Structure to design on (486 residues):
């Protein structure tokens, strides 16, 4: 319990720093917020892009077996019917019978120490009854029922009309009312089922629907992968733990197409690549754990899944997953859309529907792991400091440049020169001439700037050297401007 307390304090400190220093803000905050949504501030957007670009560089640009794509978020509803999302992309929901507040039944049970993976709704309800599990407000809970997490929307002007039941000409509601329901005065919406679409709950399907396009255009040898980064939306019953469980988030997914007999080796190779990426994110190896997901907990199409879990301040939770999806998705397209998804091995008559290995990352979870790995409290000359020890290649600001005093034009002019030269080279360079040098260092430590450059009188009058202070060691070195901007 004491441990848990510290862990949550650490999480709170990170959330507070993220808001205070311009990384991440609660979504729609000025209007009272919108649960499960987060906005990225000037530093957060850069950090997030650096995380995504590193992934793109390691998994796409530096390889010749990967192709990038960027598919539309809105897709034909048949995609989600064929993939099984319309019927099965659900979580178990229970309702507080007094407040009406809704919760994820599996999370409530997990918090009480029960493992509910693979249990039916009836089993979950029974477990709640047998153990007298109550809502967080201490009230009775309803039976568990399924809740589909996809955000439904309507495409085009066929959305339908909102009307008050009982209005003249409202035939549909009259029929309902005729069945003994008292619906008068209630609002109803009519819609054309053909106009229904969903905000995609995963980026993967946009890859599968483009598999044939890329094969026809590029005819790559197997194995090869299609990679995509982009938004995904899930109407989570209870978004929680900062950005960890959001309703709008980003994914970085690869569908790696292999010969059906070669899936196991491709799985191992991609798993090793995943670990290399986690290392490049600066995550400590002892915080990373592989969970071999047992058969009854795996998605129905998966023959093998490994969840990579991470020791977040909120506890050990899923950071990303890698799954062997067999030919489930391409097979569905073939079956439902009637399009041939077979791969023809060059120079042979061999044809088959490729199997797929899918490493799937959530950007927000990667970002939360990076923030929590970087967050450090230490002491410098007896003063407590907070420092974000981001790996240099992820830090949102690479250098901060300051004149020692802001009211000395000769210092300011020289500092400006250095600032412009560094900015041309690195882009993300900050100018800071506020307060004394010690305060500037503290501010930069909090946002994780690896180097602070100060131009002082010695720079101008004596040696032309500037002082470069290292974030982690706080040591300062005198370096020539040429060397710094080279
Ligand atoms: P969980 O069990 O935590 O709900 P999941 O197993 O449903 O996650 P997947 O469907 O495998 O997740 O999605 C792939 C990745 O997308 C996850 O490993 C995670 O990094 C990310 N992800 C999934 N749901 C969310 C969410 N609500 N908010 C942020 N990231 C998410």
């Amino acid at each position: 319990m004491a441990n848990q307390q510290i862990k949550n304090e650490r999480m709170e400190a990170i959330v507070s720093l993220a808001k205070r220093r311009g990384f991440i803000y609660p979504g729609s905050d000025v209007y009272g917020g919108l649960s499960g949504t987060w906005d990225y501030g000037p530093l957060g957007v850069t950090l997030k892009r650096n995380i995504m670009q590193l992934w793109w560089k390691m998994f796409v640009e530096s390889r010749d077996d990967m192709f990038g794509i960027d598919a539309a978020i809105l897709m034909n509803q048949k995609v989600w019917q064929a993939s099984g999302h319309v019927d099965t992309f659900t979580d178990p929901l229970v309702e507080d019978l007094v407040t009406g507040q809704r919760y994820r039944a599996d999370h409530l049970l997990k918090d009480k120490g029960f493992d509910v993976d693979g249990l039916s709704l009836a089993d979950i309800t029974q477990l709640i009854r047998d153990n007298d599990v109550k809502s967080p407000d201490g009230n009775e809970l309803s039976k568990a029922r399924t809740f589909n997490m996809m955000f439904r929307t309507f495409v085009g002007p066929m959305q339908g009309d909102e009307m008050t039941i009982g209005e003249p000409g409202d035939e549909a509601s009259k029929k309902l009312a005729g069945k003994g329901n008292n619906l008068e005065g209630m609002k109803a919406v009519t819609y054309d089922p053909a106009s229904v679409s969903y905000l995609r709950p995963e980026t993967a399907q946009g890859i599968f629907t483009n598999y044939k396009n890329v094969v026809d255009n590029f005819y790559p040898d197997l194995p090869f992968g299609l990679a995509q980064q982009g938004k995904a939306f899930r109407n989570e019953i209870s978004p929680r733990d900062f950005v960890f469980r959001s309703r709008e988030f980003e994914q970085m997914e690869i569908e790696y197409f292999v010969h059906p007999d070669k899936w196991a080796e491709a799985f191992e190779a991609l798993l090793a690549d995943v670990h290399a990426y986690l290392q490049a994110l600066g995550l400590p190896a002892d915080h990373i754990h592989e969970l071999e997901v047992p058969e009854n907990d795996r998605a129905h199409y998966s023959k093998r899944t490994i969840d990579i879990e991470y020791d977040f301040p909120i506890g050990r939770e899923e950071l990303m997953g890698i799954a062997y999806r067999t030919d489930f998705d391409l097979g569905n397209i073939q079956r439902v859309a009637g399009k041939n998804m077979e791969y023809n091995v060059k120079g042979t008559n061999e044809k088959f529907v490729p199997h797929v290995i899918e490493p799937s990352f959530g950007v927000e979870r990667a970002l939360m792991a990076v923030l929590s790995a970087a967050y450090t409290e230490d002491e410098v000359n007896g003063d407590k400091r907070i420092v974000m020890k981001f790996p240099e290649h992820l830090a949102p600001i690479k250098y901060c440049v300051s004149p020692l005093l802001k009211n000395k034009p000769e210092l300011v002019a020289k500092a400006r020169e250095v600032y412009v030269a560094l900015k041309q080279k690195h882009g993300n360079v900050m100018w800071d001439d506020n307060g004394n040098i010690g305060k500037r260092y503290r501010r930069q430590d909090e946002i994780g700037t690896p180097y602070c450059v100060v131009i002082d009188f010695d720079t101008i009058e004596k040696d032309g050297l500037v002082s470069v202070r290292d974030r982690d060691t706080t040591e300062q070195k005198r370096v020539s401007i040429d060397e710094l901007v080279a």
In short: The radius of gyration is 27 Å. Residues 2-77+201-372 form a domain with the BirA Bifunctional Protein; domain 2 fold (CATH 3.30.930.10).
